[in-house]
Design brief:
CATH superfamily: Glutaredoxin
Number of strands: 6
Helix content: 40-55%
Number of helices: 9
Structural class: alpha+beta
Number of domains: 1
Order of helices and strands: EHEEHHEHHHHHEEH
Largest sheet: 4 strands, mixed
CATH class: Alpha Beta
Radius of gyration: 17 Å
């Protein structure tokens, strides 16, 4: 369809603001005239990972309360106590990012569902989704057995695919000078432009109307 609106959504599985944007992204994905390509940015993966500490925990919880006010997304006391204030674990989206790539290769239509489950397990259930064992459990609970098997023993294809997705996201971020996620880009090629991320926390219908009018 020539009038299809193409969106590219850059995210990180451990980004609280991306969790806040999830309902809007899901609504965009449900529109017949909109296609959404989701790419993990690797923000908190690899060299971007770091140990959880009290300073980051306080900063995160403050931001989380703002996200709840804007979107209604839940950040539970279990998350606050067991993840932020545990004094253990890392901010490391490497396992979750790899798992999502495994889902994309084996059951691509369920990748966003897997992302939502990975976010839910952290922010609502209060389990550390930087832990590969937690991520493996999420895949199994979703019935994504093939992805779980691939995630447990990643082959060269998965590792290369995962790397290529992160690199593609980072090329886009560099092009537009985007410093963080979520980043939403509308259009392709020379016509592509960034949509204000604030639009992901307001009235999604207004965003859709704006996209269709552009």
């Amino acid at each position: 369809m020539s009038d299809t609106i193409h969106l590219t959504y850059l995210f990180d599985p451990l980004c609280g603001w991306c969790y806040g944007a999830a309902p809007a992204i899901e609504t965009l994905m449900q529109q017949e005239d909109i296609t959404v390509t989701a790419l993990p940015s690797g923000l908190f993966a690899g060299a971007g990972a770091f140990p959880m500490d009290a300073g980051f925990a306080a900063h995160a919880w403050e931001a989380d309360q703002r996200i709840t006010q804007l979107t209604g997304q839940e950040f539970s006391e279990n998350y606050r106590k067991n993840v932020l204030e545990s004094g253990a674990g890392n901010i490391d989206s490497g396992p979750a990012t790899l798992a999502l790539s495994a889902v994309h290769l084996t059951a691509p239509e369920q990748e966003f569902e897997a992302l939502k489950a990975i976010q839910h397990v952290r922010y609502v259930d209060g389990r550390d989704n930087g832990d590969a064992a937690v991520i493996a459990a999420v895949l199994t609970e979703l019935g994504l057995d093939e992805a779980a098997k691939l995630f447990a023993a990643p082959d060269e294809e998965l590792l290369a695919f995962n790397k290529s997705r992160i690199e593609a996201a980072q090329v886009i971020m560099h092009r537009f000078g985007a410093r963080g996620v979520p980043t939403l880009v509308v259009g392709e090629g020379a016509e592509a432009r960034v949509v204000s991320s604030n639009a992901l926390y307001g009235q999604t219908e207004a965003l859709i109307t704006t996209l269709r009018a552009a």
